[in-house]
Design a protein that fits this description.
This protein has a 3-stranded antiparallel beta sheet with strand order 1-2-3, with helices on both faces. The longest helix has 17 residues. By secondary structure, it is mainly alpha-helical. It folds into 3 domains: 109 residues, no CATH class; 70 residues, no CATH class; 138 residues, no CATH class. The protein contains 20 helices and 3 strands.
Length: 355
Amino acid sequence: MNDELSPEDELRLNVLFNTELKAVRIDESNMTLWALTPKGEASVPLKPNDRPDRYLKRVRELLSGHALGSPGGYPVHLTRWTRQSQAGLSTQHLGQLLLIAEEEAVVAVVHSPALTDEIARYAWWCMPTIENARLMLMRDVVCNGSMGRTLAEFLVEHLAFLHEDDVGILDTVAVMLYSGVLTDAECAAIWKRGVARNSYYVAFLELRPNALPVLRAARADHASVPALANNPYSQMLAKALSDQGQTFIYTTALILDRPEVQEVVNHTLNALANWCAPLRQADAATRETARAALLAAAPQFESDCAALDTLAAADADTVRPIFLKTTAIGSLMRRKIQPIVTPLMDAISVLRSAS
């Protein structure tokens, strides 16, 4: 077995090391090493003198020796990182990890809180995947930089590849909305996908509960809600009966009527809990006093107040005892959570019907 690179490759790589490298990747199918420099991309067609996997290992050892001063190759401890424990890495170290042509090192970089917009651009050049795009868009510095729009456009274009991956859809839409770089047209297009797969709606309920793309009409008696200061029932009724509120609870019902996976149920119930924050945050005495005041001024809303109480009592913890005992999805999961979902659906029906 030959332990050396071919003379031609060793010469070319050593010449490459004298340039200002930003990132390196290897196309194993074509046995080509690509390097990103300030002048653009450079390629080095590799000429193996051994079995390809062995030869590429030696190439990566040479890269690691140059970038990290570790002639033994890619540091073994990096492959055992939890991917959430890179708080101690500096920006300089992140840049060095992108020079060793290891995918795991790129993943470590995109997980790092030290990630910058520039390093994100180099990491993206190394490994443009949906997962990496999601991870990098979770960083404000990337969202607000030149890469934010690039990554969001990629995810918009690749949503179709997620097919029936409800968790992937949920996570992808969430980071795109969080980034704040989507256009109104893009948000509307993503929302429309919910007609075929309701998991597309969930992130909107979580992140934009009061700015949903498609509005339903306000309930006919919306204007009859008394405007009582510091009254959580007055506040919640005004919100629930508004056009945005009607859109929110209608969409919540669409999701809870046919969720496919447990994560969708959990996120939807937590979105509902956040939406009901005025009631949930008030203590029992405050709620009792506020409800009495509201009903004294507008007794016709008694059933609506009861419906709001039902919605405010729900969150992901409500279904936790069920989900701890089962990994069911689809129709079986829906049957198991029916005792919890049915009262919520009934409450939403009340809030969507004028008294």
